[in-house]
Amino acid sequence: MSANQIIKDHDKWRKGADGAQAGLSGESDSGSYSGLDLDLITIASTRFNGSSFTATTFRDANWSSSQFTGILFSGCDMARLRITGCTFTNCTFSNCNMQKMEMTQCTLEGSNYDKCTMKDSHMSDCTGGGGGSMSDCDMSGAGMSGCTFTGATLAGAVYSGTQWSGCKFQSCTWKNLGFVNCQWTHVEILDCHCDGIKGDSVKGEKVTYYGSFFENSEFRNSAINTA
To answer: pLDDT of 57-76, one tens digit each?
Structure first.
């Protein structure tokens, strides 16, 4: 059975129209999908190339060891999605709900997130680069640990109540970001260009920012490397 048919059968099962709960393993796909209910779907060791998903739900699903290349996710609900060991290359996430999503040991190359909700999500041991970006996203309560980003752009977001630990930003661009009640521990901001950064009640320990340039920026009520 093709990946396309497995995906559509899972949607039918979710909607009570026969079909069957699906799991993709070792498959490949390049289909275009809209309005599907793919909650709880399991995806493992599968290749997606040029696929697109519009207004599709992936709530409480599990993805692992899969490759996504040139994929468009638009208006999708990915709440509580768990992603482990996946690679995303030149993918676009637009207006997606990623609340409480967990991403572990993933690689993001040239992938862009635009106007996504990532409240209370968490990324751990992930790497990102290749000119990827994250713009105008809701990052309230989002956390990151052990992540490295190279040449990425972060723009137009407010990080409220977020915690970063053991993260590195190399040659990145930060533009019009707000940090409120945030905690940074062992964070490296190296050779980055930071413009319009506003911080309030930010606490940081062992934060390094060698070679980085800040302009039009200010931090109030904050304590960084004060111990």
So the answer is: 999 999 999 999 999 999 99
